[in-house]
Amino acid sequence: MDRNLKLALKERWLKLWDNHPQADRRFCNLVMMYERAGLEYHNLGHIDSCLSVFDRYVYIALRKKLVEIALWYHDVICSPLASDNERQSAFFAADELQWLGLSEEDIRYVRMLIMATDHKSPLMNFDAQFIAAVDLHTLGMDAETYACYSTAIRSEYVHVTDDDYRIGRSKVLAGFIARNPLYLIAPMNEEFGERAKENMKAEIESLRATRRITA
Question: What are the sequence ranges of the domains in the chain?
Answer without folding.
Answer: 1-122, 136-215
